[in-house]
Amino acid sequence: METEEKKKILIVEDESSMLKILVDSFEKENFSTLEARDGEIAFRKALEERPDIILLDILLPKIDGLTVLKKLRKENEYGKKVPVILLTNLNPDREEINKVIAENNPAYYLVKTNWNIEDVVEKVKERLSRSD
Residue 100 has what DSSP assignment? Predict the structure, then answer.
């Protein structure tokens, strides 16, 4: 009998408490989790590990999340197609954010204060169900 392979999620979050909550929540839902606390590590891990989906904060050390998203989309076929959910405290009312979103097609843009963790997990599952 074959066991279903766990979906792999890269969680990019520099805030330790939020990262732990997200990792714990996704592991409870039977995801394999990868962690990155800055944009450089996130970009490298995404290309090396090829997660099924990326949960990406925007305000990050070293390289911000919008730059990570732009670099991924330009990198290769994997980077162009991997679903990315932006999870941030920034409202998408800044022109720069709207431009990057329009050009780089993230799956969702979620403002942390508007969503609870269970909702974020459901959005990830919903997005992955469309790519199976």
Answer: H
Tokens standing for 121? 């997990």
pLDDT tens digit sequence for 61-70: 999 999 999 9
Instruction: Read off the DSSP letter of residue 36.
Output: E
**CA–CA gap between residue 46 and residue 34 (Å, rounded):** 9
Q: What is the distance between the alpha carbons of residues 128 and 7, in angstroms, rounded to a whole number?
A: 9
- Please tell me whether the overall predicted TM-score, pTM, comes out greater than 0.85 for this model: yes
What are the residue ranges spanned by the domains of the chain? 8-127
Q: Which amino acid is at 115?
A: W
Helix axes 95-104, 65-75, angle to 10 degrees: 20
CATH T-level topology, domain 8-127: Rossmann fold (3.40.50)
Instruction: Please give the Cα distance from 17 to 54 (Å, whole number).
Output: 18
